Amino acid sequence: MKILTKLKAKVKILKSQVHILRIAYSDKRTPLIAKLLIGLTVGYLLSPIDLIPDLIPILGLLDDLIIVPILISISIKLIPEIVLSDAKKELKTNPEKIKKNNWFFAILIIIFWICIIYVAFKIYEKQSGKH
Prior knowledge:
- The chain is 76% helix and 0% strand.
- By secondary structure, the protein is an all-alpha fold.
- It has one domain.
- Helix 2 (18-25) crosses helix 5, helix 3 (32-46) runs antiparallel to helix 4 (62-78) and helix 3 crosses helix 7.
- The radius of gyration is 17 Å and the shape is globular.
- It starts with a helix and ends with a helix.
């Protein structure tokens, strides 16, 4: 269990990088691929639906301990160093900026789940023979 505790501590540190990702997302110098991955990462973190439900013992922690840190790490690697540096400075000087961006990511998550539900409904409709 000591390993799990250490791993959780590392994940907590990595998750703190999400605020930097959110600031870098709005920077015009951030490449599109990085923005897409940042959107996916932050959306997944804020989403109430996990890929692996937390109710499943041990497996439920996998997304928090493996998937999320991998997404965060890759996102950070895709951001130019100058943008990352500026985002860190911005977070230190203006921590209120994070709260202002919450609505944007909330809307992205809502749109994503509406699309998923729509596609699932269309597939169900098609399979049941209704048009």
